[in-house]
Amino acid sequence: MADTNHLFATPFVIDRLQSEAGIAMLRDAIFAEMDRDRKGVSISNIGGWHSNTQMLEWGGEAAKALVFKAITMAEEASVDVKSPDASRFGWHAELWANVSEKGNANQYHTHPGSFWSIVAYVDDGYEGDDDPTLGGELQLLDPRSPMVQMTAPDLRMKDASGAAQAHEISIRPQTGMIVMFPSWLQHAVRPFYGEGTRISVAINLSTGLKKPH
After folding, report:
1. Which domain holds residue 100?
2. Fewest Cβ atoms closer than 10 Å to its Cβ: which of 52, 53, 131, 212?
3. pLDDT, tens digit, for every residue of 12-32?
4. Which residues pair with 202 in a beta bridge?
């Protein structure tokens, strides 16, 4: 009988923000910046408000704490193969806020030039409603799947359990959830139909060798 192996797993990390006070501070800072700059910018967002990428400057201590959390997650999920006990690499963070109302979404995109990408949910906007038709899920797309779908749309390779491999993963956000994935992984947000306001912070972590002491 043939021996089947499964290679090249893609890491995806889910954690929680532990400080309710910190989450509230992030909310206040985001709404203050939104009042200052009502126009924002338009990048991957379809509707909604997207801040500039200088949140580390205007987000206060809560933004700095969030970046520390993100870097901690990145350190735990990365290894310098030439110096595993003391990494030679440091991290540079760029972050921004997204505020979404009913009908808003984010189209599929990647973050070129970064190593890890993170999203933290300040408010999931569901207001306690677990109705799956409210949408707003974070979608992760296997970058190999378009080729498979072009050659044989209904044919799937089997995963380790023997079921059809999933080409697109859907994650329903929760307030306080923080997720991290490789920046080359295509991701999107399904149209959001909750009655509340979805508030999230996105972080890109790029890396480079530390300067010698």
Report:
1. 13-78+88-136+174-209
2. 212
3. 999 999 999 999 999 999 999
4. 96, 119
Is pLDDT at 71 greater than 80 in this prediction?
yes
Whether residue 112 is contained in a domain is answered as yes
- Alpha carbons 190 and 60: distance in angstroms, whole number: 30
Residue 92 is given by DSSP the state: E
What 2-5 contacts at long range (C-beta under 8 Å, 24+ apart), as own/partner pairs, is: 4/158
Euclidean distance between CA atoms 72 and 6, whole angstroms: 29
User: What are the two backbone dihedrals, phi and then psi, of residue 69, each rounded to the nearest 5 degrees?
Assistant: -60, -45
Q: Residue 159's CB: how many other CB atoms inside 10 A? A: 11
Which residue type sits at 87? Answer: S
Rounded CA separation 200/78 (Å) = 24
Report d(CA 174, CA 161) in Å as an integer. Answer: 28
DSSP state letter for 103: T
Whether the CB-CB separation of 19 and 178 falls below 8 Å is answered with no
Pairing mode, if any, of strands 116-123 and 49-50?
Answer: unpaired
Our count of domains for the chain comes to 1
The single-letter code of the amino acid at 179 is: V
Which residue reads 């749309």 in tokens? Answer: 153
Cβ neighbours, 10 Å, residue 173: 22
The CATH number linked to 192 is: 2.60.120.620
